[in-house]
């Protein structure tokens, strides 16, 4: 056998995603109406390109030398987190990473051992399971509440065993767009604390927050880092900048953590980032962080897109979860077969993502990063397919 067991498991767990990639080649057609992935459909934000342009000209001989976590980037992130979350983050709590992928990978390296179980939400991001398999970890699904896709603390508690080391939560949530309130985090903190005492082993929480700054209707945001000290936060700038190809993110340690544990995590980040393959952002992206902290996609325009798509499809008879955050719209496929539904639309040049990628074969996801013109042209086709919704 050529591949390792963990490589085979990782490959197989993401096979549905890679197959979907291969199946939507028609989405590359200039006339295709593509709502699959959260990719940009318009030119990059001026603030992004200006920040990078400003930092491009070298100011010292080591401008493009090896970089770990740059102090100015750490300070900018810590300052932003203090403002957003009201928690006393310090620059040393921040490890700069290659997007949220890099931050999650670092968190797994810091906290888990081979064979550990990691509880993940269902439906949830389709890369959790393959990332876990690649590290010889065991993903254990915890269903969200079926009625409204809220976080079900009881389901998480039921999923915990003596082998559980980590629980991953995601808010605002991909694919559902739900934003969970502080009361949910307080309840989860109580459940995790009780389970940790019962099993004699601390269960950690990873709060996956790449959409934290993309919320609608004035909805506030609370991080579980303020409710449960044993929390790490991963973040990606690729969402709010709508530039996923520019890999920039971080892993942050909750400042509520006991000082000795906090210090141990701080000291371990840099050597582990080296060990997992130099998991630091490029120099240019790190230099740009202070300027990028205030750059964002147009949330008012994104709200208009959400309202246009949601309103039209709801009126057509679709069952939808109105997103409170992210740039996705989550709905139930007519007839309950998302693959057939999305396949029929693809034949007409409209590309949606079937919920099978999220272990939800009756649902579909629409990315709202498409232009308003694309939305207006696609809506008649999607509305016509509503029979049985």
Characteristic key phrases:
13 strands; Aspartate Aminotransferase, domain 1; 389 residues; PyrdxlP-dep_Trfase_major; alpha/beta; aminotransferase
Strand-pairing-aware structural class: alpha/beta
Number of helices: 14
Q: Which stretches are poorly predicted, pLDDT < 50 over at least 5 residues?
A: none
The SSE string, one letter per element, is: HHEHHEHEHEHEHEEHEHHHEEHEEEH
- Relative helix content: 40-55%
Mean pLDDT: 96
Work out the radius of gyration. Answer: 21 Å
As an assembly, this protein is single chain
Cofactor: pyridoxal 5'-phosphate
Pfam families: Aminotran_1_2
Family: Belongs to the class-I pyridoxal-phosphate-dependent aminotransferase family.
Protein name: Aminotransferase
Walk me through this protein's architecture.
With 389 residues, the protein is of the alpha/beta class. It folds into 2 domains: 5-45 and 297-384, Aspartate Aminotransferase, domain 1; 61-292, 3-Layer(aba) Sandwich (Aspartate Aminotransferase, domain 2). Helix content is 41%, strand content 15%. It is built from 14 helices and 13 strands. The strands form 3 sheets. It has a 7-stranded mixed beta sheet, with helices on both faces. The protein has a 4-stranded antiparallel beta sheet with strand order 9-10-13-12, with helices on one face. α7 runs parallel beside α8 (182-199). The chain starts with a helix and ends in a 5-residue tail after the last helix. GO terms for molecular function: pyridoxal phosphate binding; transaminase activity. This is Aminotransferase. It is an enzyme of class 2 (transferase). Its cofactor is pyridoxal 5'-phosphate.
């Amino acid at each position: 056998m050529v591949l390792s067991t963990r490589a085979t498991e990782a490959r197989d767990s993401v096979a549905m995603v890679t197959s979907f990639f291969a199946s939507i080649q028609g989405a590359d057609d200039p006339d295709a109406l593509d709502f699959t992935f959260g990719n940009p459909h318009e030119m990059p934000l001026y603030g992004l390109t200006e920040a990078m342009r400003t930092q491009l000209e070298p100011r010292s001989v080591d401008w493009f030398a090896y970089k770990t976590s740059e102090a100015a980037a750490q300070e900018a992130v810590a300052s932003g987190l203090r403002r957003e979350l009201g928690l006393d983050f310090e620059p040393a709590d921040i490890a700069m990473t290659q997007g949220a992928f890099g931050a999650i990978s670092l968190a797994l390296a810091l906290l888990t051992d081979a064979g550990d179980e990691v509880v993940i939400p269902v439906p949830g991001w389709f890369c959790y399971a393959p990332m876990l398999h690649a590290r010889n970890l065991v993903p254990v699904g915890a269903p969200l509440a079926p009625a409204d896709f809220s976080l079900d603390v009881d389901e998480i508690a039921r999923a915990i065993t003596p082998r559980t080391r980590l629980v991953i939560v995601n808010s605002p949530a991909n694919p559902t767009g739900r934003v969970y309130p502080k009361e949910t985090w307080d309840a989860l903190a109580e459940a995790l604390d009780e389970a940790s005492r019962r099993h004699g082993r601390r269960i950690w929480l990873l709060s996956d927050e790449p959409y934290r700054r993309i919320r609608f209707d004035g909805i506030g945001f609370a991080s579980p880092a303020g409710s449960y000290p044993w929390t790490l936060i991963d973040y990606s700038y690729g969402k709010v900048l709508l530039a996923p190809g520019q890999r920039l993110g971080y892993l942050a340690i909750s400042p509520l953590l006991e000082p000795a544990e906090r210090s141990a995590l701080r000291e371990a980040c840099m050597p582990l980032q080296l060990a997992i393959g130099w998991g630091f952002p490029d120099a240019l992206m790190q230099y740009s962080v202070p300027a990028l902290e205030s750059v964002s996609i147009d949330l008012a325009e994104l709200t208009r897109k959400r309202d246009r798509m949601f309103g039209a499809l709801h009126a057509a008879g679709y069952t939808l979860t109105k997103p409170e955050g992210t740039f996705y719209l989550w709905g139930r496929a007519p007839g309950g077969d998302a693959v057939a539904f999305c396949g029929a639309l693809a034949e007409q040049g409209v590309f949606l993502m079937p919920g099978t990628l999220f272990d939800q074969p009756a649902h579909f996801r629409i990315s709202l990063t498409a232009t308003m013109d694309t939305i207006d042209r696609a809506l008649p086709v999607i509305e016509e397919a509503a029979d049985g919704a």
